[in-house]
């Protein structure tokens, strides 16, 4: 049996990863219906799933700290709906369309989320060329136009605005932000990255190979 790290409250996991929680974001946005960190729980992460790579090395930028969690491998996509770039309801399954798929959960108020966006945007372009769709779903509880302006200011070429103002996906996954989930063509989870990753680096390429071949 592999050694297992005990389940951690998301608040503790966030502090370890430099990630963001819903409570912090609502304070930043002035929203009124804050959910406590204890209401969102993370999945079990086994010790051999915590990488000892550059993102976690001493002296590295803590913004890009993350863990790779495979404890949800084989799970289906959440069925919760959110808004596509045209403002119409959609779902992960609709966006995946039977192909390998990656979904990133982020928010404008989450510093690690914003830090990884440029590399994620470049990665999305690379992934598209290999038959893998990457979407970034904002968990912001603000008007879509505000998120659009935020992305436009950064000149991202590949990431379009998807909006989940009710944070249904974050709660369905039971995770903090940022979180990125990889699916195979059957719509089954392969792995999830909790925390920020420099997606256009070697680790991002290795993860892409797992679903793109």
Quick overview:
With 213 residues, this protein is an alpha+beta fold. Helices cover 31% and strands 18% of the residues.
How many helical elements?
7
Query: Strand sequence of the main sheet, in spatial order?
Result: 3-10-9-6-7-8
By CATH reckoning, the class would read: Alpha Beta
Query: Residue share in helices?
Result: 25-40%
**Silhouette:** globular
> Sheet bearing the most strands, described?
6 strands, mixed
Oligomer state of the chains in this structure: single chain
Going by CATH, what is the homologous superfamily? Glutaredoxin
Write up what this structure looks like.
Helix content is 31%, strand content 18%. The chain is α+β, with helices and mostly antiparallel strands and 213 residues long. The chain has one domain: Glutaredoxin (3-Layer(aba) Sandwich). The strands form 3 sheets. A 6-stranded mixed sheet has the order 3-10-9-6-7-8. Strands 1-2 form a two-stranded antiparallel sheet.
């Amino acid at each position: 049996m592999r050694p297992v790290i005990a389940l951690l409250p998301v608040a503790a996991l966030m502090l370890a990863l430099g990630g963001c929680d819903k409570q912090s974001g609502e304070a930043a946005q002035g929203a009124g219906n804050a959910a406590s960190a204890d209401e969102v729980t993370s999945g079990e992460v086994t010790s051999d799933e915590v990488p000892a790579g550059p993102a976690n090395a001493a002296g590295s930028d803590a913004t890009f700290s993350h863990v790779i969690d495979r404890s949800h491998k084989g799970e289906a996509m959440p069925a919760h709906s959110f808004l596509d770039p045209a403002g119409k309801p959609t779902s992960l399954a609709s966006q995946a369309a039977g192909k390998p798929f990656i979904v990133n959960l982020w928010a404008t108020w989450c510093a690690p989320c914003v830090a990884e966006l440029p590399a994620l945007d470049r990665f999305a372009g690379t992934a598209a060329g290999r038959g893998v769709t990457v979407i970034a779903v904002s968990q912001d509880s603000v008007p879509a136009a505000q998120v659009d302006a935020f992305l436009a200011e950064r000149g991202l070429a590949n990431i379009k605005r998807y909006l989940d103002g009710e944070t249904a996906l974050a709660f369905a996954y039971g995770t903090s932000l940022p979180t990125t989930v990889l699916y195979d063509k059957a719509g089954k989870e392969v792995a999830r990255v909790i925390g920020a990753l420099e997606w256009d680096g070697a680790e991002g390429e290795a993860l892409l190979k797992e679903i793109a071949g």
